[in-house]
């Protein structure tokens, strides 16, 4: 039973624009200590009411508990609730709903009246009559009048529930002692009737689109698919029986996921999947013999070959045009995997195992366009690199695909069979100009489709463009290149993906120009960010510009109002409201007690990398900085990091940074340098050495860094960089390398077990950047191996790995440790049981973070009170 109770009490008040807490030094130390980390807040899941008068969000800490806030953007009235991440404004109404535990609440924002219901799975709201239809975990269905909470209608033993978008009717499956019944209930006329009955337990799925109602009768010997084309007019029911269509005995409809059974009433078509009885394959004996057979001719490595064999037994996909009783099979041996447009008018098919996987993380594919009405196939792209599948997008109307290849965007029209280069011949680059690894350069940014299908939005390294399909013209929308501002469409503008997601993995990212599109701009010199609004005439209107990091923007009223989260390196994330013609106003602040106690100073510094390329680094100053003193410095290595200038580093954010905590280092009196690096393929060692030395030289000119006490830290590829640097430079006092591929020779001939793929790709065309096979570039591989060059290491090294690391085997760290041990050089190797490449256990993240600080204190400050270090020397 669902329990109804009226709740009228809240915790609410006004959001203070600023809270200043005066604390003694002891209290400051307490706030900045690990004991306090669990209380540090961050803002997530921002939702703005369409009218802009209320905003909802949750604050999260390291504890499992979250706090839901609801704020009036004008009066600043604030309400707080214990709740999770499930909440929303009911469109066009004054009602707000949220879930806490097993209870769902409905709050009237105008009257502050609140209703509480237990165990609600689904709900429908009738605004005209202010009625709630609730489907409960106890399989009950109730219609409740909200003004007095009277139950107007109730049914029990309800298995499934669907209703049209207007919510005026509802269909459900009711189970009795002997049968399943499909029932129809009209909320306005309060009419209830039975549409169909079947023996108990056989009605498996109920799907509705417009007026077309579809269900599966999963009989053991002859499963049936039923469709009622128009439930309003009572048109003739159509039935498809598998036994009448020569399906093998034992075949069953697949109904596990949302996209397994889809109806499109407008075109009278149903997509469905059938699992035929299993066909015996080589895998049935090969994987039971106890012997692994790794064949070099296989398209995939042995661990992935089970998936290749299982392609034979994938569910088969069909479209049934029910008014004509035409059945078309989409899947085939050539195209076992199918992606469809939402209207079922076009299908794409491919076999991801057609080619051997060697130098990318997936083999290429042959892409076919399939006509779901006739079943005819047309080869569209041959040997397309599936590793770049996110750059291939099916048009919303299913009549074309857009994709990125050979440094340009292309457009293929299915109706004309023509392929057009969208960006070829233009005097600007649409590939990522910062890309310096091997292989094909990726695009400079994502591609988006307008929901109408008329426009494709894409960008070069600075500006947004619109490609018009009807005349193949390209329109430049922004003018960022002239001001060194990089524009991109903010994800907040993306249309919600259809839950059926039929077009995966070629699902288009869609935006609606008529509704307005939010653009985010980032100045590439200062990293100041701005929000801009784009409307139907491609007119750009600036909303705001701040020297800060802006996230989660929600924009309403044609760009005249925005709510967003803002942070800087020294101000905790806060929520702001910006209205046209007014300054942005803070309406909520996380961690206000930190004001005046955690205000790290940062600056950007300029230098050059290999090939004299201009680069930047972020230099963080110690918390209690005194310009008359010198401080040790820790350099964090990876690739490009200067974009972190305005990032607020929470002290508990140890997973994302692999145990490295800038906050704690700043608190303990260190400079922290986070530099950019550029690379020349085949010369990673030289690239790192030149870039880091130049960055450190620039930092020494900028701030009072103690040049004799500088340490280096890196994890994963950054750990590889740190170890390489240790073989080349003796100016740094100590090095820490975690989870690092320390031997390019062994790494090349190994498997990345997290992905079950060979590491050829990682070394040839990814971060290691060898740009060739080991057999072509043996000496280069050796010259870029920290293990091979380890006789040149002279500084103490701390190495650490997860024992279950499936990306970089822990034996990489062991090999370098054994080399240094044999040479009697100072080194410690830490191995964490049960950890993969990313440490997930809080206690291990805390431990490695503490040890990193211990290690730098020991070597850069001479604080020798860590027994775990002293025992080694």
What does this structure look like?
Helix content is 12%, strand content 37%. The chain has twelve helices and 58 strands. The protein has an eight-stranded mixed beta sheet, sandwiched between helices. It starts with a strand and ends with a helix.
Task: Give a quick precis of the structure.
With 873 residues, this protein is mostly beta strands. The protein is built from twelve helices and 58 strands. Helix 5 (684-702) packs across helix 6 (717-726).
What topology, given as strand order, has the largest sheet?
Answer: 49-50-52-51-53-54-57-58
| Category from helices, strands and their pairing | mainly beta
The percent range for helix content is 10-25%
The proportion of residues in beta strands is 35-45%
The number of distinct β-strands equals 58
Task: Annotate the secondary structure layout.
Blueprint: E1 4-7, E2 11-14, H1 25-31, E3 42-48, E4 54-60, E5 66-72, E6 77-82, E7 87-89, E8 95-100, E9 103-108, E10 114-118, E11 120-126, E12 131-136, E13 141-145, E14 150-155, E15 158-162, E16 169-175, E17 179-186, E18 191-199, E19 203-209, E20 212-217, E21 224-228, E22 238-241, E23 252-254, E24 261-264, E25 269-275, H2 283-286, H3 302-310, E26 316-321, E27 326-329, E28 337-340, E29 347-350, E30 365-370, E31 377-384, E32 393-394, E33 400-405, E34 408-413, E35 418-421, E36 448-450, E37 455-459, E38 464-468, E39 473-476, E40 485-489, E41 510-511, E42 517-523, E43 529-534, E44 540-546, E45 549-556, E46 561-568, E47 571-579, E48 585-589, E49 602-608, E50 614-620, E51 631-637, H4 662-667, E52 671-675, H5 684-702, E53 705-715, H6 717-726, E54 734-738, H7 744-748, E55 751-752, E56 757-758, H8 760-764, H9 778-783, E57 797-802, H10 811-822, E58 827-832, H11 842-861, H12 867-870
Parallel strand pairs: 36-41, 51-52, 51-53, 53-54, 54-57, 57-58
Antiparallel strand pairs: 1-10, 2-6, 3-4, 4-5, 5-6, 7-8, 8-9, 9-10, 11-12, 12-13, 13-14, 15-16, 16-17, 17-18, 19-20, 20-21, 21-22, 23-25, 24-25, 25-26, 26-27, 28-29, 29-30, 30-31, 32-33, 33-34, 34-35, 36-37, 37-38, 38-39, 40-42, 42-43, 43-44, 45-46, 46-47, 47-48, 49-50, 50-52, 55-56
